[in-house]
């Protein structure tokens, strides 16, 4: 054990040294080869990104000729940057420098990563198998995953009752309540996140455990539970060799959500009947009016002492999503933090759109965690996307976290949630590389 820890410490030390040497090498190479022109190289690259971001805003917020010109700029700005590097005969220098920075970042993340065997995977509490499990399965979900992975046959072989959902099967929540009335001591869903949320609410109401079988299209809830989304049948192992976790639920205007509730641009667009058949076309047709506040209500968001007036997009999530880690966007590190995550975006000009390149430091981007978020509007109701389901709710809309409301049964052996990528802290890397200890 001690020898293993020693080897790990030595590996971190050498990774830290590699990160520092690579970063220094990139800077020295630029200065030695290009001299003061290296400043111009960086400035030209940054300007190209800013122009492309601004043009992207114009393309989304305008139609006709302006959109056509903007799309040309979106493509043309990066190409113009590359052409300028080629003309100066410095493209090779830029590519080598970028390669060294990429090596520095990879080595730095490896040095700062925590030593955990299964990062982000809560161990759970061992529990006996259920006596009467009832699983609701949507045969159409995920392009027919229920049939493709033989989920019904496998669940019934394990002793579970299976209820297949169809056009005439009735309200999903009512079916779940009927199952509990028949004596079900575990509920589960093989379907999308919207269906998962409806049945999860019933399970939490009655205090029975809940099993997630990722048979939908995206399966974000399963992703953050660390389940195998490639083979949903593996989740059925929770019926025989499972452990139990306590996770939070979110509630928006009285409706439960397991992932998120979205307001603003996305929620307005998905309400269109044409969206299902032509997503891209509907998005490009409706976005200009939504982004420029010509269509849809003007939102006001309050969370604690923070108020955001007029954001175009608001996402309230059941526990915060990773924001600083681009590789982990769309993931949550935990589902039992007892808070909601809030991400709001406000962009009213091309300059503000370019400013979003600053990430979390951009004034138009607000990210925070709060037990409660209130979304108001200048109209009597607001469109909301709740776990992908389109709804209209009366304003103001109150979103709250319900800590530990849901008992989730998961397989003892599951892939787990990859750990968040650590922030590159150059001071820590220096200490790891040249300090007395790892």
Low-confidence stretches at least 5 residues in length (pLDDT < 50)? 1-5, 116-120
Overall shape: globular
Bin the strand percentage: 15-25%
SSE-based structural type: alpha+beta
DSSP summary: helix tally: 13
Secondary-structure element string:
HHHHEEHHEHEHEHEEEHHEEEEHEEEEEH
Rg for CA atoms: 25 Å
**Overall average residue pLDDT:** 89
Query: Mind summarizing the main beta sheet?
Result: 11 strands, mixed
Helix content: 40-55%
Short description:
This protein has 438 residues and is of the alpha+beta class. It has helices spanning 2-34, 37-61, 64-87, 91-112, 145-148, 151-157, 172-181, 193-206, 220-225, 265-270, 279-291, 350-355, 426-434; strands at residues 125-126, 133-137, 161-164, 186-191, 210-214, 242-252, 255-257, 260-264, 299-303, 306-309, 313-318, 340-345, 365-370, 372-377, 381-386, 389-394, 397-411.
Describe the structure in your own words:
The chain is α+β, with helices and mostly antiparallel strands and 438 residues long. It is 41% helix and 23% strand. It contains 13 helices and 17 strands. It has helices at 2-34, 37-61, 64-87, 91-112, 145-148, 151-157, 172-181, 193-206, 220-225, 265-270, 279-291, 350-355, 426-434; strands at residues 125-126, 133-137, 161-164, 186-191, 210-214, 242-252, 255-257, 260-264, 299-303, 306-309, 313-318, 340-345, 365-370, 372-377, 381-386, 389-394, 397-411. Strands 1, 2, 3, 4, 5, 6, 7, 9, 10, 14 and 17 form an 11-stranded mixed sheet that branches. A 6-stranded antiparallel sheet has the order 13-12-11-8-15-16. A hairpin with a 2-residue loop joins strand 9 (299-303) and strand 10. Helix 1 (2-34) packs across helix 13 and helix 2 runs antiparallel to helix 3 (64-87). The longest helix is centred in the first third of the chain and has 33 residues, at 2-34. It is globular and about 80 Å long.
């Amino acid at each position: 054990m001690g020898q293993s820890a020693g080897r790990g410490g030595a590996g971190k030390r050498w990774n830290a040294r590699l990160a520092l040497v690579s970063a220094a090498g990139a800077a020295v190479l630029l200065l030695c080869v290009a001299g003061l022109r290296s400043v111009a190289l960086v400035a030209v690259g940054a300007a190209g990104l800013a122009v492309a971001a601004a043009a992207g805003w114009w393309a989304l917020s305008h139609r006709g000729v302006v959109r056509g010109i903007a799309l040309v700029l979106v493509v043309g700005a990066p190409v113009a940057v590359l052409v300028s590097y080629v003309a100066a005969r410095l493209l090779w220098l830029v590519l080598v420098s970028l390669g060294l920075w990429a090596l520095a970042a990879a080595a730095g993340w490896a040095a700062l990563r925590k030593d955990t065997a299964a990062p982000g995977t809560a161990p759970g509490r061992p529990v006996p198998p259920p006596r009467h499990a009832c699983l609701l399965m949507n045969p159409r979900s995920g392009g027919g995953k229920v049939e493709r992975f033989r989920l019904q046959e496998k669940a019934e072989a394990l002793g579970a009752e299976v209820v297949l959902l169809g056009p005439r099967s009735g309200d999903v929540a009512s079916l779940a309540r009927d199952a509990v009335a028949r004596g079900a001591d575990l509920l589960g869903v093989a379907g999308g996140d919207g269906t998962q949320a409806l049945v999860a609410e019933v399970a939490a109401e009655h205090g029975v455990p809940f099993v997630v079988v990722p048979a939908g299209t995206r399966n974000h809830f399963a992703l953050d539970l660390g389940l195998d989304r490639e083979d949903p049948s593996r989740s059925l192992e929770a019926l025989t060799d499972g452990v139990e976790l306590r996770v939070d639920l979110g509630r928006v205007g009285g409706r439960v959500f397991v992932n998120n509730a979205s307001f603003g641009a996305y929620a307005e667009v998905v309400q269109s009947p044409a969206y299902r058949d032509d997503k891209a076309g509907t998005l490009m047709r409706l976005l200009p009016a939504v982004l420029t506040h010509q269509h849809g209500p003007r939102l006001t968001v309050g969370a604690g002492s923070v108020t955001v007036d007029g954001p175009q997009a608001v996402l309230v999530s059941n526990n915060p999503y990773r924001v600083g880690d681009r590789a982990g966007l769309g993931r949550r590190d935990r589902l039992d933090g007892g808070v909601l995550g809030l991400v709001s975006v406000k962009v009213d000009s091309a300059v503000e759109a370019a400013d979003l390149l600053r990430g979390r430091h951009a004034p138009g981007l607000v990210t925070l965690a709060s037990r409660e978020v209130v979304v108001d509007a200048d109209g009597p109701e607001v469109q909301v996307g709740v776990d992908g389901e389109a709804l209209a709710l009366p304003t103001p809309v109150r979103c709250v976290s319900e800590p530990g409301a849901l008992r989730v049964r998961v397989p003892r052996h599951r892939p787990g949630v990859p750990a968040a990528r650590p922030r590159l802290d150059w001071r820590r890397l220096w200490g790891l590389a040249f300090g007395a200890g790892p």
